[in-house]
Write a structure and sequence with these properties.
Largest sheet: 7 strands, antiparallel
Number of strands: 7
Strand content: 25-35%
Low-confidence stretches: 1-9
Order of helices and strands: HEEEEEEEH
Number of domains: 1
Mean pLDDT: 86
Number of helices: 2
Helix content: 10-25%
Structural class: alpha+beta
Length: 146
């Protein structure tokens, strides 16, 4: 198999029991209003967390956190807050082997641009989840001045 044939997150199979645990625990956080598993073109399933848009300014119509957790401990957390089709903010936390970036990396807002070292040092799934949710809550407080 060539590099071209491998998906960008070629880290192995998804860890469905861990995703189910993350979904169950995530809804205990005041920011999360729902959790669902959804099909995806690259991976068979992902965990989608719907965030409470009432905690955002009136212009934000949707906020989500998509989670992929793999059997080898690698992960991807993709955050997106949308105002309309042309105006959104996104960022991503990843842990995967890639020679051109740190193993645990962060793609900052507003466009999930070039990777930098991740501010999340944890490797336990629940610790990573709650560190990401804390980051989102801090962002809402600082950027949107609620």
């Amino acid at each position: 198999m060539t590099d071209r044939d491998e998906p960008e997150t070629a880290t192995g199979p998804l860890n469905e029991p861990t995703l189910r645990l993350l979904g169950t625990r995530a809804v205990e956080n005041e920011l999360v209003v729902r959790q669902t598993f959804e099909p995806d073109a690259i991976t068979p399933r992902r965990l989608r967390l719907g965030l409470d848009t009432e905690q955002y300014p009136a212009g934000v119509v949707q906020a989500t956190l998509d989670v992929g957790w793999f059997e080898n401990g690698d992960y991807s957390f993709h955050y997106c807050e949308c105002r309309d089709a042309a105006d959104n903010c996104q960022c991503r936390w990843d842990r995967h082997p890639k020679p051109s970036s740190p193993r645990a990396n962060f793609h900052p807002p507003p466009t999930a641009g070039a990777a930098e070292s991740s501010p999340v040092a944890a490797t336990h799934p629940l610790a990573v989840l709650f560190a990401v949710l804390d980051w989102i809550a801090d962002r809402i407080g600082m950027v949107h001045e609620r």
